[in-house]
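Before going further, learn to read the protein records used in this course. The integers have meaning only within a learned vocabulary of local backbone shapes. To see the layout at work, look at the sequence and tokens printed below.
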Amino acid sequence: MRWRWWQRLRSFPPLVWIVLIGSFFSRGTYFMVWPFLAILLFKKFELGTAEIGLILSASAIGAALLGFFVGALSDRYGRRNILLLGSAINLFSFALLAISQTLPGFILAMTLCSIGRAVWEPPASALIGDVIDNQANRELALQLRYFLINAGAALGPIVGVWAGLSAQQSTFGLTSLSYLLLALAFVWGFAKTEAGLRVKAREDGTVALSNTLSVLRKDHVFMVVIVANILTMFIYAHMDSSLVQYLTRSGAPRLIELISSMIFVNAITIVLLQFPLMQLMRKLEIRERIMIGLVILAAAQVWFALNPMYWFWGWMGATFVLSLAEAILFPTMSVQIDRLAPEHLRGTYFGASSFYALGWALAPLAGGLILESWDGPVLYWCLLVLCGVIFVLYRTTAYLSRPQWPDLKGEAFAPERDAKVT
């Protein structure tokens, strides 16, 4: 088994390894400080929870909408230029975060950070599908990317705390440097690999945006999946925003250590258990894996709602349960999009998955308002109800069919009419 996995990993083209390794280093430096941004805004500008939530939400809403159009543009004009543009925006935005001393400067930098991520993520995921034809290898690469992202997330807070960097904005300069190195690696990778020619071959402009939107509207299964996953992301995003504010305002003991430890537990759980869980569930259908993940996610909301503020290890336990759900749901969501997407619209479909960021964007605002009006337990009971809504949405996909679509290049593309994605 190990030898077979090693052979599959060795077959990955250089561009795939650049995406994988770049995701690890950029996300590691990102997590040194980004989860502590709410603390920075509170200490530096003395903002309230609703104000911080509004800033965090507003910086991401436009980016969520932009991600779809970026994915479609990468189908039309190729991945290379879009990936380099996203790397450049990230480089500039994190550099601005490192030096900004005013609230408008912070808001601009955070908005650019969200835009850069929206520009970079869809073509990066679609590129893996472009250069790996084998479905099993492609799904392994998507899961490995998510694994490395969380490995970076596990190491980032530890390195930050150890070096005394957490909650210090100068650390954003390290993230900016990582994106500079990533941009240079992409320039080299596209120049040296034949995959660049394959991607360039799609730059023929035949995929019209109006036709693309028409196709997506007819894919009812995909539309329901997008709505369900937006809500899933909304629930999960409260860990990075609302939970931090809840703990900060409630005077949780050893706050920085607590938040860093929760981030570490989250990431290390995924690093250690993602592949064993995927191996354990390999014979289950995609929808069945998601249902199991949703049940575990609901259990985590109950634990967060009931955990006493002073119980340090209780927060660790709730985070562990949430992380189990994430280890199942998030890689499965990427595989799900890859299986639903027609080959010539892969960037568009991954771009449409950028709408997940709407859930991420609205969570800080909604969480901030609920925390100001009520308290943390009320927030988590509301999230438990949302878990039930998502469960129902996924159940409905079993009764939807996917139509035959005319291929946008004039050829027939006929996916299975059965909506089941296994």
